[in-house]
C-alpha cells in the first residue's frame, strides 16, 4: 500500500511551509539542498520538519494539505504543538469570537 505524507516545515526565517509527498525523507532532503531556485523554501533554508501525518488515500492527503495551507500561523503552531484547545479556538470565526492577545498578524 502506497503512503502519502502531508508535512509542515519550519524555515530559517521562522515561516512555515506545508506540502505533500510520497517520500518524506527524500522531500525534506530536496528542500534543504535547494533544488528549485523558485521554490518558497530555497531562500529560507535550512528547513526543519516539525509536523507530518501519513495517509493511504492521495485525495485525502491533498484535501488536508490545502486546508492547512489556508490556516493562520498560530493555528498551524497549535497543530504542531498538539494543543487541541487552541486549535479549536483558532478555528472559530473572528467576527463572532474576536482575536485574543496571542494572535499573530502573520499568516503563512
From TrEMBL:
Signal peptide: none annotated. Residues 2-78 form the GIY-YIG domain. This is UPF0213 protein. Gene3D superfamilies: GIY-YIG endonuclease. CDD domains: GIY-YIG_UPF0213 (cd10456). Belongs to the UPF0213 family. Transmembrane segments: none annotated. It comes from Flavobacterium flevense. It holds the Pfam family GIY-YIG.
Amino acid at each position: 500500500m502506497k503512503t502519502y505524507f502531508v508535512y509542515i516545515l519550519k524555515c530559517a526565517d521562522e515561516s512555515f511551509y506545508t506540502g505533500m509527498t510520497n517520500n518524506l525523507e527524500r522531500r525534506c532532503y530536496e528542500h534543504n539542498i535547494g533544488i528549485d531556485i523558485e521554490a518558497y523554501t530555497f531562500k529560507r533554508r535550512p528547513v526543519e520538519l516539525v509536523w507530518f501525518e501519513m495517509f493511504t488515500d492521495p485525495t485525502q492527503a491533498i484535501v488536508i494539505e490545502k486546508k492547512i495551507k489556508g490556516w493562520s500561523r498560530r493555528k498551524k503552531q497549535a497543530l504542531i504543538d498538539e494543543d487541541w484547545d487552541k486549535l479549536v479556538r483558532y478555528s472559530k470565526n473572528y467576527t463572532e469570537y474576536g482575536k485574543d492577545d496571542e494572535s499573530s498578524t502573520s499568516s503563512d
